[in-house]
Amino acid sequence: MESIDRFTSIASLIGEPARARILWSLLDGRAYTAGELALTANLSPQSASNHLSRMIDAGLLKVEKQGKHRYYRYAKDKVAYAVEALSNLMPSPMKEGPAPVLNNGDIRFARTCYDHLAGKVAVKITHGLLVQKIIRPEEDEYRLTTRGVQWFEDLGIGIAGLQQQKRHFAKPCLDWTERKHHLAGALGAALLDHMLNQNWLRRKPQERTVIMTGKGEKALAGLGISLI
């Protein structure tokens, strides 16, 4: 099959409205049953099953069995990056006057993007890491500097193990609300896990939105990262 045919095939899969809603729902990083995804996409169970089967065959999703249940999630992190990237095609609302102030608890302020942090907070953190030369851009990746290795190790994030994972180590991901890059890949996922475990961030139930705690804001300020 020619490249254009393969592209057309995958584009038609992603572009179908019901399947697009399913893929969007999975951006929160959680795995869902077919019944839960059917409700999200407003589909009958049989129709949802057909859509899920097609996306599994195309390598977009995978299914995991746990007891009597079957849970669906992205087959690989590249799928999440593609969905987030497509979100950037949505037109920005044209509003006159100053940019709106984003409050803590707003999905545009801080949210999960699959397994890493997105939104204004994520963009500010990534900017801070770049300014401090903890990471540096190199082609379509971020490279961790010698200083950066020590910075993350001091947080308790082991770099060697992350580099051995069969995925992008540190990848720029274009944020669909900020229109700037935030940190994704294994390093971005590890940083989000650390922030959640340290109670710097708290998840909102059944949402992608996360809350920045006072402890988290103070900790980031101590690391030289301002959210202002």
Give the neighbour order of strands across the main sheet. 1-3-2
Record field, number of beta strands: 11
Specify Rg, calculated over alpha carbons: 19 Å
Count up the helices: 10
Q: What order do the SSEs take from the amino end to the carboxyl end, as H and E? A: HHEHHEEHEEHEEHHEEHEEH
Q: Uncertain runs with pLDDT below 50, 5 residues or more?
A: none
Assign the structural class, choosing from mainly alpha, mainly beta, alpha/beta, alpha+beta, or little secondary structure: alpha+beta
State mean pLDDT (0 to 100 scale). 90
The domain count comes to 2
| CA-based shape | globular
- Beta-strand portion reads 15-25%
Write up what this structure looks like.
The chain has two domains: 3-75, Winged helix-like DNA-binding domain superfamily/Winged helix DNA-binding domain (Arc Repressor Mutant, subunit A); 111-222, no CATH class. It has a three-stranded antiparallel sheet. It has a two-stranded antiparallel ribbon with strand order 4-5. Strands 6-7 form a two-stranded antiparallel ribbon. The radius of gyration is 19 Å and the shape is globular. Helix content is 45%, strand content 18%. The chain has 228 residues and is of the alpha+beta class.
